Structure formats: C-alpha cells, structure tokens
C-alpha cells in the first residue's frame, strides 16, 4: 500500500532520460559489487536546475497526487551525495526552504508546501548494489521498489519486506518504516536496515554527509535509529541506505537478506455489494479482525499469509477479500483455506463474482506497472487516512463503518481497507526502532480517489467525516488504547494536526510515534539544530 503511480520503466521517455540523455541508465545489479559499464555516466550528470518558465518545470513539479503542486524557485535534480550537499548548502546560505522528493508518492503536501523554495528531486539516484566492505546491500533513495526487488532478485536471489506497489520510491518508504506482503513473515523494511548516509546541516549552516549505522558503538547511531520509522523530511536528506538482516552472518550476499519467493500463491474473492447486508459486511470485517487476533504472534505459522479486505463504498459495487503467500510455504493451501473459511464463517454470503486461487511468479506481481494503484491513470487526486489496530473494531465502530459505506455522499472509488500486519513485525521492541507500534495486528486505511478538482470538497468531506466518526469516542483520531494504536507516518495525514478534525488533545506526532517521540525530538535537536528540514507533520526540535 503506501504507494501510487509513476510512469513504468520503458514506457516512453523516462524523467531521467529526458534530463540526462539516452545514454544514462540505471545501475544494474550483476553480482557482488559489480555494476554496468554505463554507471560511470552518472558521475557526469551535473545537477539540473529547472526554474519557472523552463519547459521542464511543469513536468517535474508534481508528485503522484495531483492535488498538490508547489511553486518553488527552482527544482534541483541531483544524482550524487556531493550534489545534494552542494544544493542543500546553497539553499541554506540563500535562506531558502528546502524539501526533498524521491518517488513523489507523499499523500500530503509535505514537499509542495508554498513555503518551499527549493525542491530536490532525487530520482536519478537509483543505484542498487552489494558492498562487500559493509556486507550490506546499498540502495539509493530514488530507486523505486520495483527496481529494488528486481535487482536484488536478479543479482542475488534475495528481497526485502517492502511495499506491494512497485512505483513508490525507496527514500520515503524506507525512512517511514515501510511494510508489505512479506512483513508478517520478516518484519518491517527497517528491521533490516544496517546503515544510512544522510546530508545534514550543522548549526553554522554547513551541509555535510554523515554515515550512521546500527552498530552499538557508533557515535552516530541515534541518526540511524531516527530513520527506522521516523519518517522523511525530518533530519536531513538520505542519500543511501544499506540493508542487512540483523541475524545474518558470513560474506555470502545470498544469505544476508531474506530469500525471495519463487512464486506467489494468491486467493481472491469478490462479492457484489448490491446483495450484501449490514450483518454480512460487518461480519466479514469482524471475522477478519478476529482471525488476526489469533494468528499474529511472532513465530506463528500463519505469519506467511498476507491478507487484505477492501470494503469499498456501495457505489463501487464490490467487496474484495484477498490472501497471498510464498507458494513454497509449507501447508500454504491448507492455511489459505482455513483463513477464507474463518473470515466467511456464519455469514451466508451471496455467491461471489470471483473465486480464484492461482500461482504466479513473485517478481511479476511486485514489479508489474500500475499494480496496487488507486484506479486508472486519470484518477490522480486522493486523500488517505489510516490507523493501527491492536484488535478487531468495536461493535459501534463496525456499525459506523457500514453507515458511511452506504451513504449517498461516497463515490465509486471511496472506501476502506483492512490490511493484515503483526507477526514478525511485533518481534521487535517498541524502542529498538522508531516504529513504536509493535503489538498491532492490522492497519486500517480510509480512502477516496477522484478525477477533477471540482470534486475536491465533496470527497474530502466524505473521508474526513468517515474517519472522525469511526474514532468519535477518542476525539476523532485513533488515540492509543485497547483497540486503536495511533497511525502510520507513511500514510501522512495533515488532519491529525488540525484541531478541527483532531479534538483528542493528543498531537499528531504522538499518534505517529507514541513514546518514541521525545527521543526523536532529541535526535532532531542534535542533527538539525537550525530546523532546516520541516513540514506540517515534522518532528519538532527537543
């Protein structure tokens, strides 16, 4: 989830091809430490500065969500750490606010704020290699998840438990504690993060690159920790991540990250909304939650299953239940059957429009252009809200969900998703990384997607009221407690910082980071003392 659409590789002229020329291509993983001969050309790519009036400006201005477009004085397209250092230093000396974009999939206007005068575009920084000296895989922030998966699999047969949408950039996804189809089995991406390289700004305004690792004796370790779920745009500009599983030993790259599945087993059921009763719809959501209550502890055999239920608005016409897993997981079909049986038990559901179980190559699903996207290429305006769940929704919450999914104001591309989580993601202590939600079992996502700016007001009103009413008992937001457990920073939602929609008295930062927030503030004070890197949901200096 947490991703939207960029043009797929090979579809016409890429953004990088436009700026650099046909000869500069992505660095390919061919083996331990080996890159393509064309990689040397990246070093010759000087930073491209694009200003208003340039034919490229409008083309580079927007991220994935067309609701937001800033008006920076310049867009700096950079291809190396040195270029980032230079660009950040120049912006600081000029007193210009800077923001950073890698994949451009931020759900809010955190990089399109009108106050931002310099937008750094990191998309050319898309290298994925293995570095023997660190016994770790190096990933630059501009690499899309699809590129990361393909290169790790092609070069070494390994993978990471990242998101299921291939077009999202690694930069924000990793820093925010990304998750995906393999996270119940292997944890969050940041549970495999060994080190980061970050361009920071000292108190005197000097920009410099710092490497921070998870090694206990590393003097910069707190900067590494802040990037294990602390979110992007808070501490500096990440220019490189290094990945190695914490228990991995030896020097064989094929054993330093989880092995990539060969095939994915998938089962999908789709029911018609028209004949779905309230008892059936709420029963599906309740049973889905209760299955995860029973099957989400670390080490549970069912952690290999990744499950999603999409309860769209009734105007959309369907309700979807999907489960997927490594096809070679022992007993996978029996576990899938048990899951589907448990979620549909006792509901007398209508005959499904689709009831399909199949296997397909794992990489195909995770690199197929457009997969996981919110509708077709025209529907590029959206609002997403989210909440963690420790257990199934309460009965009042379920009734509220049904009421909003059948009202007259929701659209065909509106609705909610429940996404299975927990498992090995809960095997890590809350303070070991910046991800504080380490005893949750699901993520709830509330969304609305539309075409034209004339539809903004109605769509925003629908999803905001839906979310507020689900969490009405706790001030309109998922305040941590027995059922709810705050929200997920990669599903950024500026409403959490708006007292109109958050009447709980609990700050947005506490909803995202809980008890880890004071430590994040101390890291901010140390590494960004001038508050250079900030946005509407950013960590405040402590």
In short:
By secondary structure, the protein is of the alpha+beta class. It has 14 helices and 16 strands. A seven-stranded antiparallel sheet has the order 13-10-12-11-15-16-14. It has a five-stranded antiparallel sheet with strand order 5-6-9-7-8.
Biggest β-sheet: strands ordered side by side in the sheet: 13-10-12-11-15-16-14
The number of distinct helices, counting runs of at least 4 residues, comes to 14
Structural class: alpha+beta
Give the low-confidence spans: 1-43, 372-377
How far apart are the termini? 32 Å
Using DSSP, what is the number of strands?
Answer: 16
> Assembly state here?
single chain
Helicity range of the residues? Answer: 10-25%
Main β-sheet description: 7 strands, antiparallel
Radius of gyration: 22 Å
- The ordered string of helix (H) and strand (E) elements is HEHEHEEEEHHHEEHEEHEEHEHEHEEHHH
Arithmetic mean pLDDT = 90
**Beta fraction of the residues?**
15-25%
Shape: globular
What does this structure look like?
The structure is a single chain. The protein is an alpha+beta fold and 542 residues long. It is 24% helix and 19% strand. It contains 14 helices and 16 strands. It has helices spanning 15-20, 57-61, 81-93, 145-156, 170-175, 183-186, 221-226, 278-294, 332-344, 362-367, 395-405, 456-470, 508-513, 517-527; strands at residues 48-50, 74-77, 98-101, 118-121, 128-131, 136-139, 193-201, 207-213, 237-243, 263-272, 306-312, 318-326, 354-361, 381-389, 414-420, 442-450. Strands 13-10-12-11-15-16-14 form a 7-stranded antiparallel sheet. The chain has a 5-stranded antiparallel sheet with strand order 5-6-9-7-8. Helix 8 crosses helix 9 and helix 8 crosses helix 11 (395-405). The chain is globular.
